[in-house]
Structure prediction request, 163 residues.
Amino acid sequence: MLNDLALMRIGRNGQNIIISGPTGVGKSYLACAIGNNICRNSFTTQFYRINTLIKKFSLERAKGSYLNFIKRLVSASVLILDNFGIKPLQPAQFQVLYDVIDERGPDKSLIMTTQLPVANWNEVIDDPVACEAITDRVTANSIQLKMSGASFRQKKRGSVDKV
Prediction:
């Protein structure tokens, strides 16, 4: 089902996916698996952890290659943004995020992983207008997958030592 979803809706129709759930349940793994499948079927994919992307924006500005970087983000068939909501975004940060999402338009897909339900995105973007604009663009044509369960990292380690 996910392969079909990735190829039919994501690769061809510009549909977004929001993958939410607690830490360690496989949100990033699932997003990467979908992205990998998209790549194997001749679509372009870019992956960034949101905090790394924010730092990269500043670095690219300093190097004078900011507009070229934005152009690469906008042109990818699928942009995967991992760990949205780990920490609040500053106004300049959510403005550039809005610009990228808006410029991608309705024919390009976005996959976002987050621990926050969409209704709580205002905790990350404290400007109500910007939050509504970003949320609307991401959710308007989206499939929302809610994952649950215990952290795979905890399972891998076995039981956690109690202190």
Notes: Strands lie at 16-20, 45-49, 78-84, 109-114, 142-146. Residues 46 and 72 are 9 Å apart (CA to CA). The mean pLDDT is 88.
